[in-house]
């Protein structure tokens, strides 16, 4: 019985094990047997024991106790033992193991062995697992073998040299001289190794690269020989003569020709020849063509050649072989920026590949299609992309959606088309879009003011159909809240009219609020929208009031807070409600409110520099009073631009409690100037310059009468170019006898640096009587911030 | 063609051959084998033979009951890698005569010896089938004679 059968017998036994446990038992017994064999020393059986151990190792069991045996077997004079010993070394030892150093000496000896097959073992092992130290030790030996021996050893020594250079780059100089001469070898194995070696040398050292550029003509000759040679059975693969060598040479030519005109010119004809003559019906030919295309695109080739290359890729796109279609698209992706027009010619085929079965091909086709979208083809491309979105695999949906958004943003032919496209994406794949889609879309909608009616109708219809897509629902709620009045009007130019009643709208919003499909953020949108509608509808305000008060006890903290504040708006601040909830101005893409990503639809500070004549008619009584206030200011003969009155409204974005803290803080000892004294109510002002354009003004009200002042409110107006933000007052009751104060902070931003003025209206009750008064502060000199004032 | 590793595994995910051209600790090798088998075995039929994994390109091909899987660097030619895998299968076929998975299981060391005549350090060392076949034959004879 030859020993090899014993190995096979063991394998058979192991495979017959029916359970993992049984297998483990068998393995344990065998390993014990192997260990005792190792201990016995030289008995002619060691190589088979090691072979068994290697099989066990491949199954995943530990085999480190075999490492020393490998060392011993490598040192054996018997070829069979050396062979398995070296194999074991490659499998069990790596450069991190100490034992690997022990075989350095054996390798050194075997490199000079009389038998080339022993030399081959040593070379192979060194190239597989040689550490940097081993490589340094043995490099001179390898270099000698490169030059002296015959082709069987030469080709292996060459690749060994490649490994040495990768491990110890400084040794590259040692091999550079021999590398050049190797190119004149006839043996393909050696030639291939030489090309690999030269490639490695050139990639690591730019000076060496310059040196080897002189070899371009020689390489071109070799290639030509291969391409035009007659059939050689030894190297032929599907009609191509040695495709492995051809690809390797093409790759080296690519490196040598890159960014160098002379070298590129020298290889121009050859590349054209290869590109035209290579038969690509089988993979081997396609591999060579592929490498040729890569080389053409990466060197300074003339435009005719580049067009030829792109056309080859276009032909690949129509190939039946899926692999070839795939790599064609990866290559086109790389050149779509630089050779855009050439790739555009194949756009139709690329778009067809969106329908391919293979997900990888689909992915590549998607990336390419998105790269090929331009202003000219946007409409047709978008049609295809939207069709793709509805059928594409789930892992590609978010990429498709964001690609569509980017393309729409850059090339949309009209605002309405843009909005329609985004709506289409939200309906099809709303769950896969990115978070910033919602604020982006809202911003887009506000800018398309002529389309508000159309947009809100479309969104309303989408909403009543399906409330599962959160982003769509959020945008729809926001729009309905903002433009609900337009929805109620019923007619709209671009869409068939449908009668929508106030109840319908409130029903829709309530459905969103109550649905378990709605996320907390969505419900926040719906609640705010409901609240906004209280100023846009006429009949159902009570219904809104009750919805809002119900959510005052909602478990969700955010919703509860909103509901409580909206309740307060109904009760205590009803006169402010319309102003607070009025139509939002057009949002700039870069305005602070926008980039904060504030998607909650919170009441934002309106931009006071934009006139809004349309909205004036929608405001109810209290807001128009504010308008009047500012009208007065606008009419003064100060250097202000004449334009319709802007509105500036006080905001109550945070709870009063929080601002009590902030309102009460007066850290710096700033001078307090009195601006109003009447009927026991005195108003003082403190000015704090924050930056060149920003000023914080604190208004302090105190009461010297016998009775408390109640329902105390302040309203303020400033010139048009100045932005004003009023924080909530610390309270609205001023205790009598000067026992307490009410403070309110106002932030002013004066970007145009006009002279600051402020008009303040106070309103309060004292002893049951309502009082109202106005005071104008005419100048806040920037230096000392000391206001001068004139009571009216 | 700088190959990082070459794996052969069955359709049940059992490893039949592993050749590593880079030094990696044992733990990492086991993880890579697991990742590869999971990724390749979950591929649907009629999909292309190329995958992306970390920063490597994975090329795989199924021959009967064995998957041949190799990892390439980014600038390597995938189509040529398919040809390399095919060449290796041809070499095995010539040596064993109508090779099947069992041949590779019971004679795994021979499969390695053949591979070591074809690839070295992740690169092709010989492009002629006959030349490789001759070398393997001669080595086998040497083994027998000495033994």
UniProtKB/TrEMBL annotation, chain A:
Its main location: membrane. Residues 601-613 have a biased composition (Basic and acidic residues). It is found in: Cytoplasmic vesicle membrane; Endomembrane system; Golgi apparatus. SUPFAM superfamilies: ARM repeat (SSF48371), Clathrin adaptor appendage domain (SSF49348). SMART domains: Alpha_adaptinC2. It is a peripheral membrane protein. GO terms for biological process: intracellular protein transport; vesicle-mediated transport. The keyword Ligase does not apply. The keyword Protein transport applies. Gene3D superfamilies: 2.60.40.1230, Leucine-rich Repeat Variant. Pfam families: Adaptin_N, Alpha_adaptinC2. One of its GO terms (cellular component) is AP-1 adaptor complex. Belongs to the adaptor complexes large subunit family. Keywords: Cytoplasmic vesicle, Golgi apparatus, Membrane, Protein transport, Transport. This is AP-1 complex subunit gamma. It comes from the Eukaryota. Residues 586-615 are annotated as: Disordered. Residues 668-781 form the GAE domain.
From TrEMBL, chain B:
GO terms for cellular component: AP-1 adaptor complex; clathrin-coated pit. Keywords: Coated pit, Cytoplasmic vesicle, Golgi apparatus, Membrane, Protein transport, Transport. Pfam families: Clat_adaptor_s. It is a peripheral membrane protein. Residues 2-141 form the AP complex mu/sigma subunit domain. GO terms for biological process: intracellular protein transport. One of its GO terms (molecular function) is clathrin adaptor activity. It is found in: Cytoplasmic vesicle membrane; Golgi apparatus; Membrane, Clathrin-coated pit. Its main location: membrane. Belongs to the adaptor complexes small subunit family. PANTHER family: ADAPTOR COMPLEXES SMALL SUBUNIT FAMILY. Adaptor protein complex 1 (AP-1) is a heterotetramer composed of two large adaptins (gamma-type subunit AP1G1 and beta-type subunit AP1B1), a medium adaptin (mu-type subunit AP1M1 or AP1M2) and a small adaptin (sigma-type subunit AP1S1 or AP1S2 or AP1S3). This is AP complex subunit sigma. The lineage of its organism: Eukaryota, Metazoa, Chordata, Craniata, Vertebrata.
């Amino acid at each position: 019985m030859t020993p090899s059968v014993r190995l096979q017998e063991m394998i058979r036994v192991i495979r017959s094990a029916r359970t993992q446990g049984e297998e483990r038992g068998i393995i344990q017994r065998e390993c014990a047997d192997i260990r005792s064999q190792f201990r016995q020393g030289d008995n002619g059986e060691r190589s088979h024991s090691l072979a068994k151990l290697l099989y066990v190792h491949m199954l995943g069991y530990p085999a480190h106790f075999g490492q020393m045996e490998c060392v011993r077997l490598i040192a054996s004079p018997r070829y069979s033992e050396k062979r398995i010993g070296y194999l074991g070394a490659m499998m069990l030892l790596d450069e991190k193991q100490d034992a690997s150093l022990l075989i350095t000496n054996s390798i050194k000896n075997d490199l000079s062995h009389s038998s080339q097959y022993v030399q081959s073992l040593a070379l192979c092992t060194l190239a597989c697992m040689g550490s940097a130290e081993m490589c340094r030790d043995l490099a001179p030996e390898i270099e000698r073998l490169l030059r002296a021996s015959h082709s069987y050893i030469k080709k292996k020594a060459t690749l060994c040299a490649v490994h040495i250079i990768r491990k110890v780059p400084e040794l590259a100089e040692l091999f550079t001289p021999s590398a050049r001469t190797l190119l004149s070898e006839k043996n393909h194995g050696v030639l291939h190794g030489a090309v690999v070696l030269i490639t490695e040398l050139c990639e690591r050292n730019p000076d060496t690269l310059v040196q080897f550029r002189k070899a371009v003509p020689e390489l071109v000759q070799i290639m030509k020989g291969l391409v035009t040679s007659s059939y050689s059975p030894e190297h032929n693969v599907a009609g191509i003569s040695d495709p492995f060598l051809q690809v390797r040479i093409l790759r080296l030519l690519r490196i040598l020709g890159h960014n160098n005109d002379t070298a590129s010119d020298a290889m121009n004809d050859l590349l054209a020849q290869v590109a035209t003559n290579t038969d690509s019906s089988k993979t081997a030919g396609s591999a060579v063509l592929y490498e040729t295309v890569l080389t053409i695109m990466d060197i300074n080739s003339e435009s005719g050649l580049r067009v030829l290359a792109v056309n080859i890729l276009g032909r690949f796109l129509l190939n039946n072989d899926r692999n070839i279609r795939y790599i064609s698209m990866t290559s086109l992706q790389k050149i779509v920026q630089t050779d855009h027009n050439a790739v555009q010619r194949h756009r139709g085929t690329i778009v067809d590949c969106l329908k391919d079965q293979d997900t990888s091909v689909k992915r590549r086709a998607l990336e390419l299609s998105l790269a090929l979208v331009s202003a000219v083809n946007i409409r047709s491309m978008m049609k295809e992309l939207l069709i793709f979105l509805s059928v594409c695999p789930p892992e590609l949906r978010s990429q498709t959606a964001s690609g569509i958004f980017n393309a729409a943003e850059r090339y949309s032919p009209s605002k309405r088309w843009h909005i329609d496209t985004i709506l289409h994406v939200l309906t099809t794949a709303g769950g896969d879009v990115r978070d910033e889609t919602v604020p982006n879309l809202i911003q887009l909608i506000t800018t398309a003011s002529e389309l508000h009616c159309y947009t809100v109708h479309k969104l309303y219809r989408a909403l009543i159909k399906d409330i599962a897509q959160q982003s769509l629902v959020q945008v729809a709620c926001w729009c309905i809240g903002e433009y609900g009045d337009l929805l109620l009007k019923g007619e709209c130019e671009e869409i068939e009219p449908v009668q929508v009643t106030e109840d319908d709208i409130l029903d829709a919003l309530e459905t969103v609020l109550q649905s378990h499909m709605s996320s907390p953020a969505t419900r926040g949108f719906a609640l705010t929208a409901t609240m906004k509608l209280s100023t846009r509808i006429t009949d159902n305000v009570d219904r809104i009031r009750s919805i809002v008060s119900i959510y005052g006890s909602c478990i969700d903290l955010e919703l509860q807070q909103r509901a409580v504040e909206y309740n307060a708006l109904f009760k205590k601040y009803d006169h402010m409600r319309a102003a607070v909830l009025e139509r939002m101005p057009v949002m700039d893409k870069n305005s602070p409110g926008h980039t904060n990503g504030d998607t909650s639809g919170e009441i934002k500070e309106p931009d006071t520099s934009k006139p809004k004549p349309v909205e004036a008619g929608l405001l109810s009584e209290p807001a128009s009073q504010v308008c009047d206030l500012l009208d007065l200011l606008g009419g003064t003969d100060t250097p202000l631009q004449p334009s319709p009155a802007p509105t500036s409204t006080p905001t109550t974005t945070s709870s009063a409690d929080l601002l009590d803290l902030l309102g009460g803080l007066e850290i710096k000892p700033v001078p307090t100037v009195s601006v109003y004294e009447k009927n026991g109510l005195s108003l003082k002002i403190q000015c704090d310059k924050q930056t060149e354009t920003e000023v914080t003004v604190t208004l302090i009200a105190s009461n010297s009468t016998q009775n408390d002042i109640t329902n105390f409110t302040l309203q303020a107006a400033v010139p048009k170019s100045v932005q004003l933000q009023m924080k909530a007052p610390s309270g609205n009751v001023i205790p009598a006898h000067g026992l307490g104060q009410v403070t309110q902070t106002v932030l002013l931003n004066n970007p145009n640096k006009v002279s600051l003025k402020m008009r303040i209206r106070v309103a309060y009750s004292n002893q049951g009587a309502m009082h109202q008064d106005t005071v104008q502060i005419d100048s806040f000199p920037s230096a000392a911030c000391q206001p001068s004032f004139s009571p009216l | 063609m700088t190959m990082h590793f070459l794996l052969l595994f069955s359709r049940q995910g059992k490893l039949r051959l592993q050749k590593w051209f880079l030094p990696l600790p044992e733990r990492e090798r086991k993880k890579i084998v697991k990742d590869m088998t999971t990724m390749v075995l979950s591929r649907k039929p009629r999909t292309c033979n190329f995958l992306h994994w970390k920063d490597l390109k994975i090329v795989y091909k199924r021959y009967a009951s064995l998957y041949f899987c190799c990892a390439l660097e980014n600038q390597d030619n995938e189509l040529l890698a398919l040809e390399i895998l095919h060449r290796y299968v041809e070499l095995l076929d010539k040596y064993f005569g109508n090779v099947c998975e069992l041949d590779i299981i019971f004679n795994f060391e021979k499969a390695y010896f053949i591979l070591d005549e074809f690839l070295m350090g992740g690169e092709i060392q010989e492009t002629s089938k006959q030349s490789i076949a001759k070398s393997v034959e001669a080595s086998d004879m040497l083994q027998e004679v000495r033994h």
